[in-house]
Amino acid sequence: MGIVIGVVGPHDLVDDVAATCEDQPGVTALRLDYDHESQAPAIVEAHAPSVEGWLFTGIVPYMLARDADVLTRPAAFVDYTGATLLSALVRLQHQGRDVTRLSIDTLSAADVTATFAEAGLPTGSLRTLPYRPEMTSEKAVAFHRRDPGHPVITCLSSVHEALRDKMQVLRLVPSVHSVRVALRQLLLTAEGQAQEDAQIALGLIEAANEEGLLREATALGGTIAAFRGGTHLLVTTRGPLHDATGGFTCLPMLARLAGQNEVVRIGFGLGRSAAEAESLARRALARARRIGEVAAVLSLRADTDIVLESAPAAPAAEHNLSVIARRVGLSVPTLEKLLEARAAAGDTPLTTREIADRLAVQQRTARRMLHRLELAGLAERTGNLTSGSSGRPLTLYRLTL
């Protein structure tokens, strides 16, 4: 079974990086290029349902996507230190450039120093601008221009475009070796995540009233069946259970079931086989019985038990945002901001501009998000509002998620 990797980067790098990825058997690369690195988060959000992992051609688009909270799949970036930087130094030396006097952006000073030390080169005259969240291509250009006597090494296509006619500038291009190292790291992470999420999770539930059990099982992506002695068996996997419990910290379904039953005890077990999961679920239920009439426990291997706290009941669509996020290809933090916008607006429809302002995104990004929600039945158009300018009318939406 293959894996689809989304390769994100500037136009002239994506094809080569994707081709190197597809040298690996079973890997299909989805080529996703941009004009400017600031577009990376929107690209990730738009294509999240189509990929099982992300490979960025450099650290900057990766960090922008990570800081925007849009990475819902395993992700890695190609490291430009080591082989990539050494290759650039060799090229500069062949051109007769002084490689001991360089102005380098994005890479950390420690990584640059280590690479130069491996090559036996002095570092006293180097200028470095490590990547920080507040760094922009404009700031990088200004940094390099402060000392025009230093040839420039940049990791950013936008910086290269701004300086190539004014200074000696070389843009780093990821080496095949660096791409393979990053891909190997990504595949290992994705495989580990897939195996972990696929762990069997069995729940044994003691509740006299069966109403609501099927709905809870469906929300967990599982099934419910009668077990024995009035106990019900819930079968799912680790991934949905992890999401629904906030990382195994609380169990909202406990409060909902307790509203219909005086006694609700739940024991979940996580195992590599059905037999192991059932054994652990029995242990968890036994401990829940010792705790009280309303209790839930998760039992793991190595004699680890986690008491899952109850949580206030939430609307069905609200308590399972992670499922909605996977369904519509948006991140959970984005959905939470949309819920906040809905709560603030009450019954008043929101314009695409208001949504864009609340999410700090461009209007076209907001329109794309709302279109996805509309297709999923989680938003509805209620009309248009003239913006008062010559631009297109603003569409009014009522959020129903």
From TrEMBL:
<dbReference type="InterPro" id="IPR036390">
    <property type="entry name" value="WH_DNA-bd_sf"/>
</dbReference>
<dbReference type="InterPro" id="IPR036388">
    <property type="entry name" value="WH-like_DNA-bd_sf"/>
</dbReference>
<protein>
    <recommendedName>
        <fullName>HTH domain-containing protein</fullName>
    </recommendedName>
</protein>
